[in-house]
């Protein structure tokens, strides 16, 4: 009987130490997420607030809803870069 209790206790201690290690690792790896408002994104990109709100309502851009608030995280910069257009080198007969 004592042997089973000892085994249970050691398993319990292992599980707790593993959980603590995972929690500590996640805490070390995580950093605060920078969230941008529509006004900040509009100012930084030069695209109007109206356009950003239109894209949000059409679900064109990646955004977060926190209650009634619309926020953008770092994914917005990847979305902007993915819509980059390469200039044509051939200008034809100008």
What does this structure look like?
There is one protein chain. With 94 residues, the protein is mainly α. It is elongated. Strand 1 and strand 2 form a beta hairpin. The model has no long low-confidence stretch (mean pLDDT 82). It is built from 4 helices and 2 strands; from the N terminus they run H-H-H-E-E-H. Strands 1-2 form a two-stranded antiparallel ribbon. It has 2 domains: 31 residues; 45 residues, no CATH class.
What is this structure, in a nutshell?
The protein has 94 residues and is mainly alpha-helical. The chain contains 4 helices and 2 strands.
Fill in the keyword field for this structure.
94 residues; mainly alpha; 2 domains; two-stranded antiparallel sheet; 2 strands; 56% helix; elongated
CA-to-CA gap between the ends?
94 Å
Overall 3D form: elongated
Q: What is the SS-derived class?
A: mainly alpha
Estimated radius of gyration: 25 Å
N-to-C SSE string, H for helix and E for strand: HHHEEH
Proportion of residues in extended strands: 5-15%
| Helix percentage range | 55-70%
* Widest beta sheet: strand line-up: 1-2
Unreliable sequence segments? none
SS field, number of helical segments: 4
State the major sheet: 2 strands, antiparallel
| Count of folded domains | 2
Number of strands: 2
Average pLDDT works out at 82
């Amino acid at each position: 009987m004592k042997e089973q209790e000892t085994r249970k206790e050691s398993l319990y201690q292992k599980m707790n130490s593993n959980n603590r290690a995972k929690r500590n690792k996640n805490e070390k790896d995580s950093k605060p997420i920078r969230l941008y408002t529509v006004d900040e994104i509009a100012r930084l990109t030069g695209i109007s607030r109206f356009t950003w709100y239109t894209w949000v309502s059409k679900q064109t851009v990646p955004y977060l809803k926190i209650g009634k608030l619309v926020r953008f995280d770092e994914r917005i910069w990847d979305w902007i870069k993915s819509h980059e257009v390469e200039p044509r080198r051939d200008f034809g007969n100008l």
